[in-house]
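Quick illustration, no need to memorize.
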Amino acid sequence: MSTELRHAPEIIEREAEPYAGVRRAVTMDRFHELADRIPELFDWLAAKAIEPAGAPFFRLNVIDMARELQCEAGVPIFGDTPDDPPVFIGELPAGRYVSYTHTGHVDELIDVTAGVLAWADDHGLIWDMTPAPDGDHWGSRLIVNLTDPDDEPDMSKWHTTLLFRLAD
């Protein structure tokens, strides 16, 4: 698949957003181990009688595609609640984000991401990201799962939004 996008990304403003999450370091071929923790988060929320405030997401904090990704699985929540290890409470930062919603299989997201990154480069945008020896450290880079797999098992029909925070 090429990095050509089906439509142009958008630049949006987002407010800060609290969330419940779990952390995990994974390789690309073990990313499913993080995805498998999303039901655990929903179970934790249900046990605490906390309503989700939005769709589940993955936050990619440090990315070294050849070695390891330091990631989180998260679910937005309303208000504040105490940490309950291994679940922690965090906050996605407010700011300007590049947003792109993809319809298709999750296996296409690497190429779609490359297309979004190329689009931003062509438009002179600067990411909230710092390169380091252990990988690229992102202020906020998200993969938001808009489709509930229980409602739509056909992954080719899933809707996924990529969100990349821009530097101030």
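The chain has three helices and ten strands.
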